[in-house]
Amino acid sequence: xxxxxxxxxxxxxxxxxxxxxxxxxxxxxxxxxxxxxxxxxxxxxxxxxxxxxxxxxxxxxxxxxxxxxxxxxxxxxxxxxxxxxxxxxxxxxxxxxxxxxxxxxxxxxxxxxxxxxxxxxxxxxxxxxxxxxxxxxxxxxxxxxxxxxxxxxxxxxxxxxxxxxxxxxxxxxxxxxxxxxxxxxxxxxxxxxxxxxxxxxxxxxxxxxxxxxxxxxxxxxxxxxxxxxxxxxxxxxxxxxxxxxxxxxxxxxxxxxxxxxxxxxxxxxxxxxxxxxxxxxxxxxxxxxxxxxxxxxxxxxxxxxxxxxxxxxxxxxxxxxxxxxxxxxxxxxxxxxxxxxxxxxxxxxxxxxxxxxxxxxxxxxxxxxxxxxxxxxxxxxxxxxxxxxxxxxxxxxxxxxxxxxxxxxxxxxxxxxxxxxxxxxxxxxxxxxxxxxxxxxxxxxxxxxxxxxxxxxxxxxxxxxxxxxxxxxxxxxxxxxxxxxxxxxxxxxxxxxxxxxxxxxxxxxxxxxxxxxxxxxxxxxxxxxxxxxxxxxxxxxxxxxxxxxxxxxxxxxxxxxxxxxxxxxxxxxxxxxxxxxxxxxxxxxxxxxxxxxxxxxxxxxxxxxxxxxxxxxxxxxxxxxxxxxxxxxxxxxxxxxxxxxxxxxxxxxxxxxxxxxxxxxxxxxxxxxxxxxxxxxxxxxxxxxxxxxxxxxxxxxxxxxxxxxxxxxxxxxxxxxxxxxxxxxxxxxxxxxxxxxxxxxxxxxxxxxxxxxxxx
Length: 760
Ligand code: NOJ
Hints:
The chain is α/β, with parallel strands linked by helices. It has 24 helices and 27 strands. A hairpin with a 7-residue loop joins strand 24 and strand 25 (about 735). The protein starts with a helix and ends with a strand. 1-deoxynojirimycin binds next to loops.
């Protein structure tokens, strides 16, 4: 199917597929792709290129923002229209709506000399009208279908409103909970991120072979290329110093898999990669992306990313920045205008080549053909979806509940008993409609804000008396409302404390040095705990939090993340047990900020932690493990995971390299009294390798639903890409070495029984 779609994209413009390795989407890409052959230029594109002036060619490489700015600066709509009319514009971002996009498209198609249509791009990150849970939450579902549903709904809502291209999915693996953009990705693991990246690309672009020109699909963008998640200290846009092996094992796999899934475009990242800014990095953009992987689409810069090569201290001026970016492999410039301004002079001076310019233009035109824009440049204004459909709302509600993680549940405090006669909802997010999370389309946030927890609790418990007291604001030091919240809790059978981070505290340019609950929210929890009355805590946030001392006194904690449009209903579904939570953490929750980086897939050290030995790797004042580990998550029922079985105990490295596989099977049983979901997780650890390996690496997961008393056998198939790793060779070397590998199976990155496999 994947191959079919890839061909469909190409056949739309008469190209031929570049030879690639026989890779599975979830794989790291062991087989090296054949070096890129010069791309055969489609005759239509060739004809068009022959008619274009240099200015018009440079125009195709320019993307300008419309009315909304999602970065510093912006442009006047009048300038955008003039550029479109003059044929000096290839794409516009942040334009939305069938009417306005048609109006601008009409200028490009009917008033410019060659009539080349524009591509309209927008950050549709987790929904347009129908806001799904934030991507980090979606990853917590450990169910890629969740993200596929988001992408399918988003694609339809976007395309009918004139948007052809989303700057999503974000696939930056990160070990930095301080980084605000942890909310936009899938957390700390490359394998999990890969699975979600593929599902999202397929959801946006379609898997059914109908192609990008269908009304149901939009082009996706794999971003940010690459290693952006490694920003020092979690400060956005910051430096990344990364070895080739870390780059290839950790940051690149989701991108490679997205390419294999046919992703149309890639966006360069704001960071440096070992000293060379990503926008000027020919190693990543040309050597790896185009030559090694045979990428067929185009690379768009990030907002002002080309011009920022100057601030990076890499380019001397705008002309230099344009030259460096184009020559490194950036095809389209977003927001800044260095290429359009200086391109002609650079060309005349021989500092950029006509061949490279034509190549970049051909890549952009190829997507325009694939999207069907030459034949159907306009959208039907009567078709525009202008609100979430009932079906889309249902998907938003189900996926939000499916993404929640039950962190703690002492004494089965949750679900709330049906017999509860009085319920107090307290906390700044208890009656808030601001639970959509980061990156929501401004129009959607106003027209379709999130449902409130208070209203949903009232609807779910119609016979109970439900009261509300805010207690404290989400930020600030005022604790004056705490006594009223305490009074409400004292009168209630159970109190639901809804606390967290306002959406603006995560996402782009939203790093925090303190990742605990802001303002007086911890004080509020402590005051409720002091009443001695039953209570549960619901967290709504965009990153891992340090949960602090209040955790001890809270019987139950539900991590709801920023759940999106159906926030209230989805939270109530889980609180009252209509949905049994089955999500797992896609990120470790550190105990303190000082413990960061704190991730499960860290490398082995020469002095691994030992409680009895001072001279081991640890903090004197902290236990070695996180507060909550990657993969952790409870359920209202109990599961038992059996001993894993290997289909064989040894396998040769040679056979693995040739495609041999083995099976790991394990049984999982629901030993409790309710139906529920467990995520069976498989991790590997290569005991001795020529490059120190992570102590555990996720290489398989399966979310299963089981009725009480029922069991299921889960089977994982493992091959070379699960046991091998990339070395530090710049040219890309993937090795499967001989030796012992431990295979762990369990319900989190900490739990698990193991079996040893010998690779001979
Ligand atoms: C900057 C962000 O880094 C990127 O993710 C986004 O797509 C662009 N701005 C456009 O808004």
